[in-house]
Amino acid sequence: MKIAEAGEVIEFKNGLQGRVQKVNKNSVIVDITIMENYKDLDLEPLTVVNHKNYRIVQEA
């Protein structure tokens, strides 16, 4: 499993995508406002995702 780096885009939880803002020991903090339908989702702009629960879709 490759750990994402800041600036990379990841996919997690039923197709949500976001840009990694910060990498922590067990998780990443992700900005999901990059998604076109972000405003329709009624979610917070930043979320925490465990390293086990995402895949990298665009490398930095």
UniProtKB/TrEMBL annotation:
InterPro entries: DUF2187
One Pfam family in the UniProt entry: DUF2187
Domain of life: Bacteria
Protein name per its UniProtKB record: DUF2187 family protein
Organism: Ectobacillus antri
Organism phylogeny: Bacteria, Bacillati, Bacillota, Bacilli, Bacillales
